[in-house]
Design a protein that fits this description.
By secondary structure, the chain is of the alpha+beta class. Helix content is 21%, strand content 25%.
Length: 742
């Protein structure tokens, strides 16, 4: 090792060089101007004078915008006294007034200490009214109207305005934190998150109060797995059947999430852990709530879709399927249960064959219960299963079609004695090419995204079923990703999924058309050649998150699309939720072109323990009218008249309270379908319900009799195959006469 000794002079020289690098730099420091402008030379001390890195311009704008936002909240709370005697309303107003005043003081001091203006800035490209609306603020007309109301009317409108107002604040915080470099200062970061938590907490409280003051009988129903409260109108509950043995966990039939417990010293009893600390300003929140695990039972027994053939009903399930015979009054009797786990479980019946969609990665070729491990496995099955049900008491699996994205739903497009043509829609991940050759999720023409599968099934040899084409029905201008690319549609609009697959495709073979609910778009297809579907129109909606299902009316002139906002597992029918999100959309269809008519959403406020959004439904065939029965998960079922598609209205309903009072359990109605005079509804957690229509001010006995006598071609109803029903002429005449008072 060589050791060199530095002299004192050398050390002094080195120290000087390190300490004062700027003194040694002779090159100029230049700051270019805008294009065409001259550059300028900066002094060393000015070169590092960036905008104050303790806060960003976006932080400043957030504070400037939030001050008038909070100020309007105070204006709203000032209207409460003297206009309501509801103690819950008075508590809400008091909490909001106290918190908003404190936060406004903080924001003003924050801006003042940094030399920033407290005035709200003008947003380029937006009027003041548009700017206020984007923040969820009430309009002057709404404020004026609120001041004229009293009692329940005041309470309901106040909660509607204040909930939207608070959601605007939550959105503003989310938008701020999405921008790079914002809320860098720990004090600022803590403040904006406190604002969000505070506002969300008040939203939850206001939703609960709004549900309590609603005069709808469905609001505030008692919770319970088998003993929940019920509300019914213009329907008769024929029967409520529990799930068959083998299709629920005996130790946890409601699929409740496990409680989390504290670890105690040896010999001590474990206790439940408090989820949150009580809000010191809320006298009613003295007791802490239990915490629960984020997952329920490892086994999945969710009831799903249905198919009908003659007097047989088959209900799909994530665990397999169950077959029933329909008896007197439409009451089903179980005749067989088939255990074949795989998720989804949507079913269709064609002659002696039953088709079932399978999408989960745990599904096996052999219907085994042990699942599948690993990213790649030769045992995994994801696609379309084919069963022989000629002996429905002992169904046999006779064919399988593996697909790249599994099978979420399928549609029987055409069927005869020799072959069946099916459109398959997979919505899950693209499996590995090593597991199924040709499966890629990368960009380019070979990708498994941006297409559907056309499957051909030889009736005599179903084992030879195969994919014959994967048409690019979303292509436009030479690009396979030609429709909605994902994202929102501007301020205050919904975050809409990218259109790279369809969830449901409802085919109407007698009309040679199909309607696709395709994630980010609703589309119309020409299916004159079932093997070569061609898109002829497409629409999107600023309030739709996920285009989920499509249903034609009986003559193919109207289409009902549903929006599964929240994916079906979230409580999206609370009092404060937007009325145009998670709704049904009604479109008229003329010459292959869709024209928007209106939206309809369940009017009864649901709780935060009820997953609720529009899901699957069907037409109720009343001659001369367009009537639809809709499943809303734990929102129950609605019967909706959309004869005038611009003005749909509810004519009947049924609802139960939540599965559990303490936790959100995914449950409620997956599907509600009319068949042979009854409404059949698969309840995800509880079982199978059957309903009959009752005469009312909205529906005559003669109209119901005609609907009960409607004739389905082949006496078959598959969920995504629309058939045009007919009626006996005398019953049509009687129904028409009854509408005229005859």
């Amino acid at each position: 090792m060589i050791i060199r000794t530095l002299t004192a002079a050398s050390l002094l020289s080195l120290a000087t060089a390190i300490a004062t690098p700027a003194l040694a730099q002779q090159a100029p420091i230049v700051q270019p101007g805008a294009p065409g402008a001259e550059s300028r030379t900066l002094k060393a001390e000015d070169a590092t004078k960036l905008a104050d890195t303790a806060f960003s311009p976006a932080d400043v704008m957030f504070m400037q915008m939030m001050i008038p936002h909070h100020a309007q909240a105070l204006e709203l709370t000032e209207l409460v006294e003297g206009r309501t005697s509801n103690s819950d309303m008075l508590k809400i107003a008091g909490r909001i007034a106290a918190s908003q005043a404190d936060e406004m003081k903080f924001m003003r001091e924050w801006l003042s200490s940094r030399g920033q203006s407290q005035d709200m800035p003008h947003m380029p490209g937006m009027s003041h009214a548009e700017h206020m609306a984007a923040m969820g603020m009430a309009t002057p007309a709404q404020m004026k109207r609120l001041a004229t109301l009293k009692g329940n009317e005041f309470d309901a409108f106040f909660l509607e305005l204040m909930t939207r107002h608070h959601k605007g604040a939550v959105d503003m915080v989310d938008e701020l934190l999405q921008q790079p470099g914002t809320a860098y200062d720990p004090v600022m970061f803590e403040f904006v998150n406190d604002v969000k938590n505070e506002q969300q907490g008040e939203i939850d409280r206001m939703n609960a109060v709004a549900a309590r003051i609603s005069d709808d009988p469905r609001a505030g129903l008692a919770a319970g797995f088998r003993d929940a409260g019920e509300a019914i109108s213009n329907l008769r509950l024929v029967t409520a059947m529990p799930k068959p043995t083998g299709f629920f966990d005996p130790a946890n039939p409601a699929q409740l999430q496990p409680r989390i417990v504290d670890e105690k010293e040896e010999g001590e009893e474990a206790e439940l852990v408090a989820a949150t600390k009580p809000d010191p300003r809320d006298e009613d929140d003295e007791e802490s709530k239990d915490r629960f695990g984020q997952r329920g039972s490892l086994l999945s027994f969710a009831n799903t879709d249905m198919a009908f053939s003659g007097d047989m009903l088959v209900t799909g399930n994530y665990h397999g399927f169950n077959a029933y015979r329909l008896g007197a009054d439409g009451v089903p009797s179980l005749i067989s249960s088939v255990v074949c786990p795989g998720g989804q479980g949507d079913v269709s019946i064609v002659g002696d064959l039953l088709l079932m969609s399978v999408q989960d990665s745990r599904a096996r070729k052999d219907c085994g219960l042990q699942g599948v491990q690993g990213r790649v496995s030769e045992d995994r099955f994801r696609g379309l299963r084919i069963f022989d049900i000629s002996d429905i008491t002992r169904p046999r699996q006779v064919g399988q079609v593996q697909t790249c994205r599994g099978s979420h739903t399928h549609s029987v497009v055409s069927a005869d004695d020799s072959r069946i043509v099916v459109y398959n829609s997979g919505t899950s991940y693209v499996r590995d090419d090593a597991e199924l050759a040709g499966c890629f999720d990368t960009a380019g023409d070979e990708t498994a995204l941006f297409s559907i599968d056309v499957i051909e099934i030889p009736v005599a040899e179903p084992a030879r079923a195969r994919i014959v084409d994967s048409p690019r029905i979303f292509a436009k201008d030479g690009q396979i990703a030609g429709l909605w690319r994902g994202g929102n549609h501007g301020d205050g609009t919904q975050e809409t999924n990218v259109t790279n697959q369809c969830h449901d495709i409802t085919v109407f073979p007698s009309k040679n058309i199909a309607a696709g609910a395709c994630s980010g778009n609703g589309i119309i297809l020409d299916i004159s050649d079932p093997f070569k579907p061609v898109r002829i129109d497409d629409v999107t909606d600023k309030g739709f998150a996920y285009w989920h299902s499509a249903t034609f009316n009986n003559d193919g002139t109207q289409v009902v699309f549903t929006d599964e906002w929240g994916g079906g597992g979230r409580p999206r029918c609370q009092a404060g939720d937007p009325r145009n999100w998670g709704a049904d959309a009604f479109y008229s269809l003329k010459d292959g072109q869709l024209n928007f008519e209106s939206l309809y959403k369940l009017p009864a406020p649901q709780s935060d323990k009820e997953n609720c959004v529009a899901h699957n439904g069907s037409i109720i065939p009343v001659p001369g009218r367009d009537i639809f029965v809709q499943a809303w998960y734990q929102g129950g079922i609605s019967v909706i008249d959309f004869t005038d598609p611009a003005n749909p209205f509810e004519i009947a309903y049924f609802d139960r309270g939540p599965v559990d009072e303490d936790q959100l359990v995914t449950g409620g109605y997956w599907s509600a379908y009319w068949y042979d005079g009854r409404i059949y509804a698969t309840e995800i957690t509880r079982g199978l319900d059957v309903f009959a229509l009752e005469p009312s001010e909205f529906l005559t006995a003669e109209e119901i009799a005609a609907a009960e006598a409607a004739q389905y071609p082949g006496d078959v109803l598959n969920p995504q195959t629309q058939t045009q029903v007919t009626w006996p002429a005398d019953l049509v005449a009687a129904a028409e006469a009854s509408r005229k008072g005859g």
